[in-house]
């Protein structure tokens, strides 16, 4: 067997090189998805671990990790220094440490409430089991725990509400956008309405929606209370416009050659839309959906404040009305929570866009 001048088997060298190439191919394939989820800084770390030059990857690592972390650090430092110097009727603006402490207390309150609920159901089960053993099954009663919602419960309520409003908006906006993109007459009829209603504030919609829902949704169910439905409809009315506009633009931008071929083949309308229009316009449709979800999440907080839907908006309003020494810190916790959840929702929509449009390009 031939040996190299260094005493290493050439087959071994080729095998190592093949493994190295496979590792880099896998890293390059995963780079797009890591970027989608905001984890682009992991790529240079993986490349360095796979044997790439640290010097060649350091610039990308600095840009994707060190620079954002520096910005966050500067913000937190400025917050810690400047916040105590601003005095309000509730005291000085809390700094990062006080806000972190309040966030931990909100989590502890959630855990304590869950323990109370578990104890309540355990006592109820024991009581009912004893009644059944004594032959008093007619006295068995099952009740739901009626404790106050915790901060985590309010986050879940807000997510349910924005999801409901976003689904409503998508159901309305996508078909109208397709019709508007395909027909100049429909586009001409819808365009004035879009220009009139798109700038309307959620605070203007809320009284109208409240009155309509109160008049028509009389027998409200526990799964969908009136306050949640009101907030969801307000979210729908304010967030459907980006999806409608981008869908119409995407449909109108479909390659004319594709539409001409479809006419020659005499494709039925539903098949033309599903096989030609939708696949070609998906990137712009998803762009509209991302914008709509962002608008809906932003609008939701104001809607919940006034409709008293037990979500993050109501939490902020209640703390503002409460006026305790910890209220400011809790409000800042809510502000940061709203921002983080908004970022995660955008990343989720971007991941869906990348999956359905076969593109990881921003």
From TrEMBL:
Q: Which family does it belong to?
A: Belongs to the binding-protein-dependent transport system permease family.
Name it.
Nitrate ABC transporter permease
Q: How does it sit in the membrane?
A: Multi-pass membrane protein
- In this entry, which stretches build a coiled coil? none
Q: Does the keyword Transport apply?
A: yes
What subcellular compartments does it reside in?
Cell membrane
Span of domain ABC transmembrane type-1: 155-349
Which PANTHER family does the UniProt record give?
ALKANE SULFONATE ABC TRANSPORTER-RELATED, MEMBRANE SUBUNIT, NITRATE IMPORT PERMEASE PROTEIN NRTB
Q: Which superkingdom is the protein from?
A: Bacteria
Cross-referenced InterPro entries: MetI-like, MetI-like_sf
Spell out where the chain crosses the membrane.
30-49, 61-82, 162-182, 232-254, 284-306, 327-345
Single GO cellular component term: plasma membrane
Q: Which UniProt keywords apply?
A: Cell membrane, Membrane, Transmembrane, Transmembrane helix, Transport
Query: What is a single Pfam family found in this protein's UniProt entry?
Result: BPD_transp_1
Tell whether Phosphoprotein is among the UniProt keywords: no
Q: Which CDD domains does the UniProt entry name for this protein?
A: TM_PBP2
According to its UniProt entry, one GO biological process term is: transmembrane transport
């Amino acid at each position: 067997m031939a040996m190299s001048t260094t005493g290493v088997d050439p087959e071994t060298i080729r095998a190592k090189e093949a493994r190295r190439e496979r590792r880099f191919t896998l890293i390059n394939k995963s780079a797009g998805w890591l970027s989608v989820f905001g984890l682009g800084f992991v790529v240079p770390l993986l490349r360095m671990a796979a044997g790439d030059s640290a010097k060649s990857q350091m610039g990308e690592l600095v840009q994707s990790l060190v620079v954002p972390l520096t910005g966050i650090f500067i913000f937190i430092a400025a917050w810690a220094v400047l916040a105590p110097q601003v005095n309000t009727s509730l005291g000085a603006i809390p700094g990062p440490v006080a806000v972190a402490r309040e966030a931990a207390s909100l989590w502890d309150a959630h855990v304590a409430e869950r323990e109370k609920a578990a104890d309540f159901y355990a006592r109820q089960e024991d009581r009912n089991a004893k009644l059944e053993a004594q032959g008093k099954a007619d006295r068995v009663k099952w009740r739901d725990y009626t404790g106050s919602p915790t901060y985590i419960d309010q986050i879940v309520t807000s997510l349910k509400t924005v999801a409901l409003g976003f689904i409503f908006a998508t159901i309305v906006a996508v078909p109208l956008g397709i019709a508007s993109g395909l027909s100049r007459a429909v586009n001409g009829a819808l365009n004035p309405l879009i220009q009139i209603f798109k700038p309307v504030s959620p605070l203007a919609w809320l009284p109208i929606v409240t009155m309509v829902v109160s008049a028509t949704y009389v027998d409200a169910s526990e799964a969908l209370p009136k306050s949640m439905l009101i907030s969801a409809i307000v979210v729908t009315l304010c967030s459907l416009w980006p999806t409608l506009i981008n869908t119409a633009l995407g449909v109108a931008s479909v390659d004319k050659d594709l539409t001409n071929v479809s006419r020659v083949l005499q494709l039925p309308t539903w098949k033309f839309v599903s096989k030609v229009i939708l696949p070609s316009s998906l990137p712009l449709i998803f762009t509209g959906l991302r914008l709509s979800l962002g608008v809906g999440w932003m609008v939701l907080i104001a809607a919940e404040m006034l409709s008293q839907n037990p979500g993050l908006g109501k939490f902020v309003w209640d703390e503002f009305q409460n006026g305790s020494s910890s209220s400011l810190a809790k409000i800042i916790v809510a502000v940061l929570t709203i921002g983080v959840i908004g970022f995660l929702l955008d990343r989720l929509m971007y991941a869906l866009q990348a999956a359905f449009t076969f593109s990881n390009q921003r």
